[in-house]
């Protein structure tokens, strides 16, 4: 009987956990839960007899896998799997999956929510600005990027996107102008919203060369990963351009310096909040549990990311 462990530093909504447990038990598997663990050591000691893991941004390192000799599958209930050592998993024959699209709407709503919050001066009583008629550049037009476009269209924003992996027709059928280069996106758009994963091609890729191209009253919106920003360059742009603002779902490492020097020009969530809705937790959590059952029952590997 396979044992499935849900290990989440940042717990799912209770209804998501109940749903996962129901699916796991209905399949006749054992269910275990480790939430809000204080130390990575607690995670490591909880995996020794598990066959399957459901995690969020929890760090599935080689060390974790070394301590889980029976582990066959890890499902990241969410999109980004930069928290999983894919090479170690592949070497050990562990299948890694994500649940693409399941929490995207929550992230897209947060991106627009943060934009409104900043445009209204964080509700400090002073007149702000509106989003209607402003240019929005969507960097990467996947699940979240396309949902951002849909919501932003409702606000009456002028929409642009850059994604080298998505055919232009797919982007343009949504009424979004597909641009030919990332440089053009930053040059054209007052708001740029990031929806790129963190990987060897994207880490530190949002740099001075891009940010310094942005038009007057530029706002960078990051609901992706803090690692994609070149923080040295970000600080340089903050210093050179009093009109530049940055909003991010999770603070950059240089948040202290930004807070000290650039009041009113930033907003950072205290914890990564993009996918933190009951709906997103239920969608992603239940999808993860169902994927595990299908994997054990039929060998289904749809959504495997370490092929
Ligand atoms: C994701 O990659 O799915 C999002 O960043 C959400 O991450 P979380 O599940 O850790 O909140």
Question: How would you describe this protein?
Answer:
It is built from twelve helices and twelve strands. The chain starts with a strand and ends in a 9-residue tail after the last helix. The chain is 37% helix and 17% strand. Helix 6 (143-154) links the parallel strand 6 and strand 7. It folds into two domains: 3-102 and 277-298, NAD(P)-binding Rossmann-like Domain (Rossmann fold, 3-Layer(aba) Sandwich); 104-268, Rossmann fold (3-Layer(aba) Sandwich), CATH 3.40.50. The strands form two sheets. The protein has a seven-stranded parallel beta sheet, sandwiched between helices. Strands 2-1-3-4-5 form a five-stranded parallel beta sheet. It has helices at 14-26, 40-46, 62-66, 86-91, 104-119, 143-154, 168-172, 182-188, 208-211, 231-240, 255-261, 278-298, and strands at 3-8, 30-35, 52-55, 73-76, 95-98, 135-139, 158-162, 177-178, 191-194, 219-222, 245-248, 266-268. The protein is elongated, with a radius of gyration of 20 Å. 42% of the residues are buried. It has 307 residues and is α/β, with parallel strands linked by helices. 3-phosphoglyceric acid (3PG) binds at residues 10, 56-57, 78-80, 103, 272, 274-276.
Ends: how far apart?
Answer: 26 Å
Catalogue the unreliable spans.
Answer: none
Class from helix and strand fractions: alpha/beta
CATH superfamily of the largest domain: NAD(P)-binding Rossmann-like Domain
| Computed CA radius of gyration, to the nearest angstrom | 20 Å
Instruction: Say which molecules are bound, naming each kind only once.
Output: 3-phosphoglyceric acid
Q: Fraction of residues in helices?
A: 25-40%
Shape: elongated
Oligomer: single chain
Number of strands: 12
Widest sheet: strand ordering: 8-7-6-9-10-11-12
Largest sheet: 7 strands, parallel
Assigned CATH architecture of the largest domain: 3-Layer(aba) Sandwich
The helix/strand order is EHEHEHEHEHEHEHEHEHEHEHEH
CATH topology of the largest domain: Rossmann fold
Domains (count): 2
Average pLDDT figure: 98
How many H/I helical runs? 12
Query: Can you identify the CATH class of the largest domain?
Result: Alpha Beta
Strand coverage percent? 15-25%
């Amino acid at each position: 009987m396979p044992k499935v462990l849900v290990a989440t530093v940042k717990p799912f909504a209770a209804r998501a956990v109940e749903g996962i447990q129901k699916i796991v038990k209905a399949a006749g598997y054992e269910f275990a839960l480790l939430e809000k663990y204080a130390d990575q050591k607690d995670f490591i000691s909880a995996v020794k007899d598990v066959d399957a893991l459901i995690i969020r941004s929890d760090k599935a390192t080689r060390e974790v896998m070394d301590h889980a000799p029976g582990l066959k599958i890890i499902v990241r209930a969410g999109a980004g799997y930069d928290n999983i050592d894919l090479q170690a998993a592949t070497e050990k024959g562990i299948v890694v999956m994500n649940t693409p699209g399941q929490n995207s709407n929550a992230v897209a709503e947060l991106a627009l929510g943060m934009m409104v919050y900043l445009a209204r001066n964080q509700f400090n009583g002073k007149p702000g600005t509106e989003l209607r008629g402003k240019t929005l550049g969507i960097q990467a037009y996947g699940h979240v990027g396309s949902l951002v476009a849909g919501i932003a269209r409702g606000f009456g924003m002028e929409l642009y996107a850059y994604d080298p992996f998505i055919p232009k027709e797919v982007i343009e059928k949504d009424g979004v102008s597909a641009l030919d280069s990332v440089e053009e996106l930053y040059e054209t758009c007052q708001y740029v919203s990031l929806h790129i994963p963190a990987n060897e091609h994207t880490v530190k890729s949002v740099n001075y060369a891009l940010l310094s191209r942005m038009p007057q009253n530029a706002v960078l919106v990051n609901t992706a990963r803090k690692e994609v920003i070149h923080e040295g360059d970000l600080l340089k742009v903050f210093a050179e351009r009093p009109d530049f603002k940055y909003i991010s779902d999770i603070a950059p490492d240089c948040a202290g310096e930004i807070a000290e020097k650039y009041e009113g020009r930033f907003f950072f969530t205290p914890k990564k909040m993009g996918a933190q809705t009951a709906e997103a937790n239920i969608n992603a959590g239940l999808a993860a549990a169902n994927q595990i059952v299908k994997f054990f029952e039929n060998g289904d590997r749809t959504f495997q990311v370490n092929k």
